[in-house]
Amino acid sequence: MVTVSSRRVAVVGAALSDCGRVDDATPYALHAQAARRALADAGLDRAHVDGFASAGLGALAPVEVADYLGLRPTWVDSTSVGGSTWEVMAAHAADAIAAGHANAVLLAYGSTARADIRAGRRTGTFAFGARGPLQFEVPYGHTLIAKYAMAARRHMLEHGTTIEQLAEVAVQARANAALNPDAMFRTPVTVDDVLSGPMIADPFTKLHCCLRSDGGAAVLLAAEEYVRDCRTAPVWILGAGEHVSHASMTEWDDFTVSPAAVSGRLAFERAGVGPAEMDFAQIYDAFTYMTLVTLEDLGFCGKGEGGAFVEKGRLRVEGGELPVNTDGGGLSAQHPGMRGLFLLVEAVRQLRGEAGARQVRGRDGGLPRLGVASGTGGWFCSSGTVVLGRE
């Protein structure tokens, strides 16, 4: 639990590395570029950083990357639970800062997921020698996308969700990406475009699935006494929650309920606010179904109502009642693997009024006051949710 009664914790720096097609960089270089930019954004330097968190480059990620960045932290975290890693790490870092175990914690990530494929490098591939729960699924070719497709089909069966409604998620993500000059794909698409694309895993055609990019991201969390020395307005961590569910699909109790149902409830309870007060939501969207079911589980609509909720442009920056994935998300902006840190960067930019043409407005017509970032890891195996706000 994030304890804000001792020392309040804010995000004081947030940045991305070069993203999209970055063929001439290593993952370490993307980590470093994002980290340098986040520190510059905060107006602080490496000497202020006494905590570091990273994952995605093997068991020694926080050690190796910290060394590459020239850091010697006294607090580290290498929690790795898939795409939700960064929301979970942000919660851990906020706890550590609130308790006085660290003063400024840098979270950094970098991946050459796209370049690795183009170069023919195999990374993170499950083999037939898999151990643990996965050994019972891997021999049958049960791919990650097939797991998500199964879950989507179950929601369609139980709640009448249509493929057109799922396609609306992709259409509106692309509409938001069109406002983001850094998004990889900005050309508008229609529901028919989504439905007529090549089938990847029934019911998902190509545009139901995230793109694959290179890129890195970093955020700097700091104790409230650091805020006065920073060049940017603080974005406060108001509450956070985390939850892990299953490893094997056979152990998932209900394909229509994600672990965000628990992490979201905890985050909102600890923040003392509710879903109805959010001005926007940044939601992990490796597939369209992830957005829909996470909206349900965070409480933006009832269970089974996600299909109707995403209709009529509700998720758009322009004219939407609840702008979701305002940068275009993993479906259209960038997706270099464990994308949860990108959700936090976009949330911070929105709350600080730095989003340009895609800037969300609050209920009073000014800057948004509250937002939520919720990451999902694995095949709905884990979830981390963070509620953020400005003064």
Explain this structure to me?
The protein is globular, with a radius of gyration of 19 Å. It has helices at residues 27-42, 61-69, 85-99, 113-118, 144-159, 163-177, 191-195, 260-271, 288-298, 306-309, 329-332, 340-351; strands at residues 9-16, 51-53, 75-77, 104-111, 199-201, 204-205, 215-223, 235-244, 280-283, 370-377, 382-389. The model is unreliable at 1-5 and 122-128 (pLDDT under 50). The chain starts with 8 loop residues before the first strand and ends with a strand. Helices cover 32% and strands 17% of the residues. The protein contains twelve helices and eleven strands. With 391 residues, it is α/β, with parallel strands linked by helices. The protein has a nine-stranded mixed sheet, sandwiched between helices. The chain has a two-stranded antiparallel sheet with strand order 5-6.
Keywords summarizing the entry:
391 residues; alpha/beta; disordered N terminus; 9-stranded mixed beta sheet; two-stranded antiparallel ribbon
> What structural class is derived from the secondary structure elements?
alpha/beta
Uncertain stretches: 1-5, 122-128
Measured between the Cα atoms of the first and last residue, the distance is 21 Å
> Number of DSSP helices?
12
Order of helices and strands: EHEHEHEHHHHEEEEHEHHHHEE
Q: Strand order across the biggest sheet? A: 3-2-4-7-1-8-11-10-9
- Largest sheet data: 9 strands, mixed
Q: Based on CA inertia axes, which overall geometry fits?
A: globular
Helix content: 25-40%
Strand proportion: 15-25%
Radius of gyration: 19 Å
Q: Number of DSSP strands?
A: 11
| Rounded average pLDDT | 92
